[in-house]
Amino acid sequence: MNFTNDRHAGERLHGLDALRGFALLLGVIFHATMSFLPGPQIWFVRDADPSVTLGLLFFVTHLFRMTTFFLIAGFFAHMSFHRLGTNAFVRDRLKRIGLPLVVGWPLVFGSILVVIIGSAIAANAGAPPPHAPPPPAFTPSSFPLTHLWFLYVLLIFYAISLLGRRVIRALDRQGRFVAWTDRMLRSMLGPWAAVVLAIPLVVTLMLRAHWLPWFGIPTPDQSLYPNAVALFGYGTAFVFGWLLHRQGSLLAIIEKYWRPNLCLALLATGSCLALTGLRPSLALAPDLLTKLACAVSYALASWSWTLAVVGAALRHLSAYSAMRRYVADASYWIYLVHLPLLMALQSLAAGLPWAWWLKFPMILIVAFALMFASYHGCVRHTFVGAVLNGRRKPRGPAVETTKDCAVTPNL
Fold first, then answer.
1. 285: which of 64, 258, 262, 290 fits an S-S bond (Cβ 3.0–4.6 Å)?
2. Domain range spanning residue 166?
3. Rounded CA separation 326/384 (Å)
4. Which band of pLDDT confidence, cut at 50, 70 and 90, is reported for residue 148?
5. Are 141 and 133 in contact (CB under 8 A)?
6. Cα angle at 32 between 129 and 229, to 5 degrees?
7. Are residues 191 and 262 in contact, defined by beta-carbon separation less than 8 angstroms?
8. Counting runs of H as helices and runs of E as strands, what totals does the chain give?
9. How far is residue 226's CA from residue 236's CA, in Å, rounded to a whole number?
10. Alpha carbon distance 294, 297 (integer Å)
């Protein structure tokens, strides 16, 4: 590690810790919008009052929330690897990422099935649905990972990082390639970093035959073989975060340019919507030139939003806050368990003759209240909290310690 002349060195990175929690909680808001999307029905239930506004919220959050999450995950993965060593790092990742995936997936998937079947029966006045969809095949190419796909992809990125590191060390014993990589990273960080980082995503979007521009990066939640767009798009963010931790002083550059990146993000997002329309659409780009324009706009918006929110978090959230720390700790549990609860609330609210601006916040308030209560009462001070957050949180007021400053956030 090379933390030179860096005001973030030697302290817990509270800004990135808070942003990681924000990205996970934003996923709850993202999924909450899906029953309100206008246009073609893509969710298990459609609300009686669809909203273009919530459709735009869906679009914008999908632009950057997972790219931001994987960048931070790569950053803290490199930190954790050098703090723990290879063997301890592998054990830690299997415990805190692999175990929640293996144990959590059957519980989450079973709960989702119960909600979907119950919703269908209720919609048919107590009778079984006339055309129930066939159950998933549970083959590697057709496996419903649900929203827990991010854990599966994280494990893939960890494995690739460790293998790649070993190969590079074997072939580059003098460290020339690593030094060159560090120089290239320093040279590209600046007002146009988003342009460079967007290139792999643009290429993979252009190579995808049936890419739907309005929906951006296809979510790799239906197969054990992640699609190339998600693998390279989010993989670029993970590797960038991994390399960024090698030179902690570069965080100051990202922080410096957060406002220009925000301006670029707004312009690129506007360009995306001008090309795709304000409403969700399952249409392909009509020609190659339009597809290229959509791909460039989307990738640029994704990365400029990511760099903007990372820089803003470093600028404005770097001080310790007990509340932000608590929310960051709770966010992992909340994201793991939120989808079945959210779907049940969406199903209950869908037919109510209320405006979307009443139902949407009501769903979120009830969901967050229940999930935070379950975290505090059943997780934070138990062995489950020790698995998810690295150690069991003591009861009583939180106390910031020197040890806390060295411990990485849970992902």
1. 290
2. 14-128+141-406
3. 16
4. very high
5. no
6. 95
7. no
8. 15, 0
9. 14
10. 5
